[in-house]
Specification:
- The chain is an alpha/beta fold.
- The chain has two domains: about 170 residues, Rossmann fold, CATH 3.40.50; about 190 residues, Dehydroquinate synthase-like - alpha domain (Dehydroquinate synthase-like, alpha domain).
- It has twelve helices and eleven strands.
- It binds nicotinamide-adenine-dinucleotide and glycine.
- The site of nicotinamide-adenine-dinucleotide has 29 residues, from helix 1, helix 3, helix 4, helix 5 and helix 9.
Length: about 375
């Protein structure tokens, strides 16, 4: 087992990474009283709930099982968590445990942030995406029909327990979606990690647990460093949103759940790379490497054919990085170095937004 720390003074917490950790006795030291509410979903519960309960002997364990899907990451389904907590009389010393992917983790964290003005929670992420990204850093929340992740709070967990063995049951499309966020870390922060990913993508996609553990460790290390420096995203943390402004627009337009978050980030990363090249920062060979690694990871590199440049602009204008009406984007100065900027000619952005569509039409004929 490997252990990392997210260093946030009195809100610091450990990330444990290893095989078979779910049923291990790691949970108990992070639970302060008797009551525990496990939040999971109808896919993950039959796979891992009993294993998790083995580490909770001696506690009052209640469970709320949500329907599975990004389309249920909303206020209506968040209310089910509050109803379960109230009907089982959970008080302020309760601990919530998120057992599932990023959807369950984001919703559980937000429920913990707001139930009785804040109770503790633990992340037990079960997808690659949630192990490398969403369980770490304290962004919690739900979607709104008008925008992705628009209702939420920054609220840190007590611990993150990433059991790499659970990834063996993950569908390969979901593994690919997680790889989009792993690739992101190389692109924004660590060119050597990007090269390592280029060399090992085949094994990672095949689900090699050792390789996945290494990728999770480096990803969490980078995320922990970035979050420790900028918890509330006033600066460098925005880099973690490479490809996300384009990606969130795709997710909202296509209907939550139709394009997986990681797939939308994959196509969005390619669009960010395209604009970075138009600005003279990336070279053609960099863009080719980025396209190649995304393709090798099984990710889309083009936005949906049906999405116009105008629609992108409309949806991107509600992004959380918009300041004073000015769109800001995370772009790449080179492979391994990101920047957040509003300094790009509108005409170049238009070219990027239309280039994907044109390329898509060529590819699809
Ligand atoms: P998800 O939670 O929908 O999980 C993907 C699918 O895998 C679901 O069907 C789930 O039931 C299933 N599943 C989970 N674990 C499994 C396992 N071990 N075996 C088999 N099936 C399993 O999606 P996700 O990709 O984990 O997370 C995406 C969400 O995370 C999005 O809502 C996104 O906005 C959010 N996100 C949040 C942050 C953050 O910082 N908070 C960062 C990135 C993404
Ligand atoms: N996934 C982006 C962030 O945590 O900031």
């Amino acid at each position: 087992m490997q252990k990392l720390t997210v260093a946030l003074a009195e809100r610091s917490y450990p990330i444990y990474i290893g095989s078979g950790l779910i049923s291990h006795s790691l949970l108990s030291p992070h639970i302060k009283a008797r009551q525990v509410m496990v939040v999971t979903n109808e896919t993950v519960a039959p796979l891992y709930l009993e294993q998790l309960k083995q580490g909770l002997v001696g506690h009052q364990v209640d469970v709320v099982t949500l329907p599975d899907g990004e389309q249920f990451k909303n206020l209506e389904h968040l209310d089910r968590i509050f109803t379960a907590l109230l009907s089982h009389r959970h008080n302020r010393t309760t601990t919530l445990i998120a057992l599932g992917g990023g959807v369950v983790g984001d919703m559980t964290g937000f429920a913990a942030a707001s139930y009785q003005r804040g109770v503790e929670f633990i992340q037990v992420p079960t997808t690659l995406l949630s192990q490398v990204d969403s369980s770490v850093g304290g962004k919690t929340g739900v979607n709104h029909p008008l925008g992705k992740n628009m209702i939420g709070a920054f609220y840190q967990p007590q611990a993150v327990i990433a059991d790499t063995s659970v990834l063996s049951s993950l569908p390969s499309r979901e593994l690919s979606a997680g790889l989009a966020e792993v690739i992101k870390y190389g692109l924004i922060y660590d060119p050597r990690f990007f090269e390592w990913l280029e060399q090992h993508m085949e094994g990672l996609r095949a689900g090699d647990e050792q390789l996945l553990a290494q990728a999770i460790h480096r990803s969490c290390e980078i995320k922990a460093e970035v979050v420790a420096e900028d918890e509330r995203e006033t600066g460098i943390r925005a880099w973690l949103n490479l490809g996300h402004t384009f990606g969130h627009a795709i997710e909202t337009e296509m209907g939550y759940g139709n394009w997986l978050h990681g797939e939308a980030v994959g196509a969005g990363t390619m669009m960010a790379a395209d604009l970075s090249m138009r600005l003279g920062w990336l070279k053609q060979q960099d863009v080719d490497r980025i396209r190649a690694i995304l393709v090798a990871a099984g990710l889309p590199v083009l936005p949906p054919d049906s999405m116009s440049a105008e629609r992108f602009c409309e949806l991107m204008s509600v992004d959380k990085k918009v300041l004073d009406g000015q769109l800001r984007l995370v772009l790449l100065k080179s492979i391994g170095e990101a920047t957040v900027t509003d300094q790009f000619p509108a005409a170049l952005l238009q070219q990027t937004l239309s280039a994907g569509k044109l390329l898509g039409q060529i590819t699809n004929t």
